[in-house]
Write a structure and sequence with these properties.
By secondary structure, the chain is α/β, with parallel strands linked by helices. A 5-stranded mixed beta sheet has the order 1-2-4-3-5, with helices on both faces. The model has no long low-confidence stretch (mean pLDDT 85).
Length: 182
Amino acid sequence: LPTSLGYHSQLEMLEVFQNVQTDCPKMSSVYNIGMSHEKRELQVLRMSAGDTTTGNVNSNKQRIKLVGGIHGNEAVGRECLINLVQYFCAAYGHDDLITKLLDTLDIHILPAMNPDGFAQAEHDQWTKGRANAQDFDLNRNFPDRIADRKYPLQPETSAIMKWSREKKFTTSISLHGGSLVA
């Protein structure tokens, strides 16, 4: 279980992933879906009881995608997902609900879609770090069938789109945070 409630740096987050993979090798695997503009890895931790090495999209399990940190300055969702993977590892086999979730679902967790923004974020500077290193709001960078946006796709957005097409997720959840969330 988590030992502190502070914010994890990118390196510390990756260390948590490696620790979970070491502690729960039969139900976790780490993989990279791409790089941010500043060449930070977009690392995903996959959790599912059974074989997690193949990423088989033909599995009978539903694939769930959890994404945090689309806005780099929204650290609470990022931290919730980092703590969630540790809890999944510790609680499996002891908590009936967690055991059932991991036995029946294939959960892919990306706590930091915008690691560059997180690296730029500062306490009490509510807009700093929201966008990526190229000053694009990644939440508004996806194609839109209604609004005709001319923004170039950012590497983080392209990575998410490719990942979603390849894995064929049945459910996608994005965690946001802040003082004004509607």
